[in-house]
């Protein structure tokens, strides 16, 4: 099957007064139609900037895509014109964010906002758009959709607002949905409901999804494939089962240990010691070395490459690479 999306050696830097921040520093991944890819890492690892780059929504200045390709159905979005991007956003690629209140306009009804998106991207008149909107509200499980369509965002609960955002994003049948921390602002019960909803919609609509999260539990629920990012780089990539049963990179292992789980009764989570490095002052060698329990001399001097190890697993770590054997 052809890839829907191919990101190749993507570099997105921010040019600040204090220096250059390599927020995304040579990221590669691929996505097939209908596939769900999780991008995992702590805040500041570059996962959100990766998704903003795909939509060409990185604020410029100070941000800029400095290198790489983002091939969407074979077309390089890095080279696309702004008007081409406007067509692609919403039509082919839609995005939902953590806090729907920032993307919903408080002065317009939910229905007006979703209908506007539908009318802008599909050739439908007002009545047909209203019908489609009610259909979408029902699809995402909003009760009393016929009335709810005329309500304002503040009349919706947080969970219902996120459902409305999902309805808006999906109303134009995008080929790719990018969901950036879609459940983080919600309480645990509502989180579980939204995840269920997204799983259900993914099966029904066959939309490819990039799910961005710091929460490995959410990834396990939804994704087939995962990339783990640290300090702007991919440090591990694997199928979900492989990653869970046998994480390779010491950072992934640390993330696993700090993952809360409903059925474990550890009274304290193990948190990875240390902090994400200052992007203006990245450590030499492996950027994870100040926090890594396995750091060796070479780790402090030379950057490891993202390699395919003997088992065919992609990992960026000297433990799996022999010096001089560059691939
Ligand atoms: Fe740890 Fe070295 Fe691997 Fe970096 S390269 S994760 S410091 S063992
Ligand atoms: Mg983010």
From TrEMBL:
Q: What is its main location?
A: membrane
- What region holds the ABC transporter domain? 5-256
This chain's protein is named: ABC transporter ATP-binding protein
Q: Which UniProt keywords apply?
A: ATP-binding, Cell membrane, Membrane, Nucleotide-binding, Transport
Organism, as annotated: Paratissierella segnis
Where is the protein localized?
Cell membrane
The record's listing under InterPro entries reads: AAA+_ATPase, ABC_Ni/Peptide_Import, ABC_transporter-like_ATP-bd, ABC_transporter-like_CS, Oligopep_ABC_C, P-loop_NTPase
SUPFAM superfamilies with a match to the protein in the record = P-loop containing nucleoside triphosphate hydrolases
Record-level GO BP terms? peptide transport
SMART domains this protein is in?
AAA
UniProt keyword annotation of Transport present: yes
Single Gene Ontology MF annotation: ATP hydrolysis activity
**A GO-annotated cellular component:** plasma membrane
Indicate how the chain sits in the lipid bilayer.
Answer: Peripheral membrane protein
Assigned protein family:
Belongs to the ABC transporter superfamily.
